[in-house]
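Input.
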Amino acid sequence: MGSVLETIKKLHSFRNLDSGWRFGMGGPPDEELIHRAEYYINIATRFNIDNSNVFTGNNREVVLGFYNDGHDIEITFEADGSITFAEDQGGQQIDFVEHISEVDLFKRIWQFRFPNTYVQSIRETSTRRMVASTAQHLALRAMAAESQSSSTTVHSAPVEPSVNTSTSSTVIKPNTPASIGSFLWTPCQTGV
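Output.
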């Protein structure tokens, strides 16, 4: 158990582990797992949770622990990208969840620090932000669709990496799941 800074320093040291460091198994965790663990260390810090530790294991997972007078939580960022959550009180496991969502993980970290205080308003605020973000995204897509149906016809052609696109045309990536690569969009007058 240590301070937040010690935990972050230890977390970053995992990058230097050799493959097979533990009896021929293990190795440095994926960079994404290190970033996710650091993100949750920062969340815990904002909740004034400052007693923590971090470990890695045979499967290159990252295990993050937070401690508070016999009440502990352990968050495992699995190599497959899933998250496992465990909570102990007085040496007894009181909760264990595999494949926990990040929303539920946030809620459980909050409840660890502030028991019995996770209020509806936090969920409502998060939901409002998600809805606003989705609405903004849909509005931008509608504006893009509207601009394409105006009096200007837009032609697209794949752009080779060697093509100089520093002219007045703009290189963009279309926002559709079927799109692959970059396209050079050149406006043309209708009827020309």
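The beta strands are 52-56, 62-68, 71-77, 83-89, 92-98, 152-158, 170-172, 183-189.
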